[in-house]
Amino acid sequence: MEVVIRPADELAVLAADVIEARLREHPESVLGLATGSSPLKVYQELIRRHRESGLSFARARGFTLDEYVGLPTDHPERYRNVIAEEFVDHLDWPAEQVRGPDGLAEDLIAACASYEREIKDAGGVDIQLLGIGSDGHIAFNEPGSSLASRTRIKSLTQQTRRDNARFFDGDIDQVPVHCLTQGLGTISEARHLVLLAAGEEKAEAVHQLVEGPVSARWPATVMQFHPHVTVLVDEAAASRL
Ligand code: GLP
């Protein structure tokens, strides 16, 4: 595990460098996309490079990590819409080449299985961007998630619903109760994991991720088993290392 401690702005540039290098060499790469505020600056940096130096996503494929269950198609916080709005719509990336779990499927269990198949059929994820929750969750794998878990339905913890209420007019009651999420086993199959974290509220989760014992209590610690992990953190998020 490589841990890089830099000012927050530089972290986005470093993550964008990893993705750009991969795309320039392998335009057909499969990218794993994350939502939340952590990767936003990475997306902005990649959009800038697309505009200014022609970095192309036209042949890439993308898979998002997770999705809320039950948000209507046009809801701005539906992750599919968030990723389109913040990133994909600003690139030369055909929308149909970016996929996410279907939180509106009638049969959610079948939707999870078919999402796993899609990722597999694409050859697996080359670079997976990740944020981390203050309780150590990655994607929506909350504490207690099996380290071998696959894409499935999960309940969100009160902590995560409280953390994410800021995207729902500050109203926790508007935050969905269930989600579909790639499992820790699914995420671990990506060939390079790039996690970003900034701010003091992530410090304990980052401490556990890097130095804690591997445990479902802190789901991100599964990354300690992975052969190629880059953890990009600012001073505040690194303050307990
Ligand atoms: C959500 C997402 C996670 C993300 C986490 C942290 O719960 N499902 O994928 O890592 O939030 O979000 P942020 O980056 O906004 O702190």
TrEMBL record:
Catalyzed reaction equations: alpha-D-glucosamine 6-phosphate + H2O = beta-D-fructose 6-phosphate + NH4(+)
Molecular function (Gene Ontology), one example: glucosamine-6-phosphate deaminase activity
Enzyme class: hydrolase
Biochemical pathway: Amino-sugar metabolism; N-acetylneuraminate degradation; D-fructose 6-phosphate from N-acetylneuraminate: step 5/5
Glucosamine/galactosamine-6-phosphate isomerase domain: residues covered: 8-224
EC number: 3.5.99.6
This protein's UniProt keywords: Carbohydrate metabolism, Hydrolase
Family matches, as SUPFAM superfamilies: NagB/RpiA/CoA transferase-like
Active site: D66 (proton acceptor), D135 (for ring-opening step), H137 (proton acceptor), E142 (for ring-opening step)
InterPro entries the record matches: Glc/Gal-6P_isomerase, Glucosamine6P_isomerase, Glucosamine6P_isomerase_CS, NagB/RpiA_transferase-like
PROSITE patterns: GLC_GALNAC_ISOMERASE
HAMAP family assigned to the protein according to its UniProt record, in alphabetical order: GlcN6P_deamin (MF_01241)
Role: Catalyzes the reversible isomerization-deamination of glucosamine 6-phosphate (GlcN6P) to form fructose 6-phosphate (Fru6P) and ammonium ion.
Protein family according to the UniProt entry: Belongs to the glucosamine/galactosamine-6-phosphate isomerase family. NagB subfamily.
Record's protein name: Glucosamine-6-phosphate deaminase
Origin organism lineage: Bacteria, Bacillati, Actinomycetota, Actinomycetes, Micrococcales
